[in-house]
Write a structure and sequence with these properties.
315 residues; alpha/beta; 7-stranded mixed sheet; 15 strands; 26% helix
């Protein structure tokens, strides 16, 4: 088939490579513009662009697809199918109507749960035990189209979002390959979503990254896993950002009962902090202006007294 592929992050790369490996003609790759990245704000291409250029494929990067010349170019290419995977923009009707076989999306959740731009992170952050990938026909709404196929993937208690991204990206590529023949020959069965069961996974904000110590240790552990290795969860220490990259929830003990956010103990295992329910052992941290490191290493040169309260100026 003649295919226009639209995707941006690493999650989309296995699907693009699977399409190429299966012999489909990728007539155009559409991805997001290069963005500043890291402390030095170096302009960095998205992973899909790197993968496409490595294969010698034509690439377009419109800031806004709806108002760009890319829409006319897609229509002029007369694709059989458009495949999207975490592209990052809602497709306008002119694009949806361009391919003769329609537009399909490789979405990282079991729809109708977790529609939106951050389904994988929010599934981990919410403590879900199961997620998956859904391949769906695209409609004008946000992930509202009819479903074609799906695969379930368990979420274990220690996996991070980054690890789950990789697992789901591979599962999505395999599911795409199994689904394409039925789309090509017209036998694919489209199942409408139950919109009453829909939940949403909007893109993450700075506030989603803030640690609220009044929550339980278990829910904070899920938050930290869900934000790793992307943005990271953070609190404040003496008014400065203090990130948490690794932690472990502990049940309440006789020593617990302090104000949420209070440092109860520090030792070679890390920093033990009181939460709204149970205690959280911080094992990998990143103080302001420093690199991420084991908490035990930082404690060798830092002074953190029991009774210090995270979340604001030290009391």
């Amino acid at each position: 088939m003649r295919i226009v592929f639209m995707g941006t992050p690493e999650f989309a790369v296995p699907s693009l490579e699977a399409l190429i490996g299966a012999g489909h003609e990728i007539v155009l790759v559409v991805t997001q513009p290069d963005r500043p990245k890291g402390r030095k704000k170096t302009l960095t291409p998205p992973p899909v662009k790197d993968a496409a250029l490595l294969r010698g494929l034509p690439v377009e990067q419109p800031e806004r697809l709806r108002t760009s010349e890319t829409v006319a170019r897609i229509a002029g290419l007369k694709p059989d199918l458009i495949v999207t995977a975490a592209y990052g923009q809602i497709l306008p009707k002119a694009v949806l109507d361009a391919p003769r076989l329609g537009c399909i999306n490789v979405h990282g959740s079991l729809l109708p749960k977790y529609r939106g731009g951050a389904p994988i992170q929010r599934a981990v952050m919410n403590g879900e035990k199961t997620t998956g990938v859904t391949i769906m026909y695209m409609a004008e709404g946000l992930d509202t189209g009819d479903m074609i196929s799906r695969i379930e993937v368990p979420i274990n208690d220690v996996i991070t979002s980054g690890e789950l991204f990789e697992e789901l990206s591979k599962a999505g590529a395999e599911l795409l390959m199994r689904t394409l023949p039925s789309i090509a020959d017209g036998t694919a069965v489209a199942v409408p979503q139950n919109h009453d069961d829909a939940t949403y996974a909007p893109n993450l904000t700075r506030e989603d990254e803030r640690i609220d110590w009044t929550r339980s240790a278990g829910s904070l552990y899920d938050q930290v896993r869900g934000l790793s290795p992307m943005a990271g969860a953070f609190t404040l220490l003496n008014g400065e950002t203090f990130k948490v990259w690794g932690c472990r929830p502990l049940p309440p003990t006789a020593a617990s009962g302090g104000q949420p956010g209070t440092v109860m103990k520090t030792d070679e295992k890390g920093i033990l902090v009181q939460t709204g329910e149970g205690m959280l052992l911080l094992t990998v941290i990143q103080p302001s202006g420093k690199k991420a490191m084991p908490a035990s290493e930082w404690l060798k040169g830092a002074r953190l007294e029991a009774g210090t309260v995270f979340g604001g100026v030290q009391l």
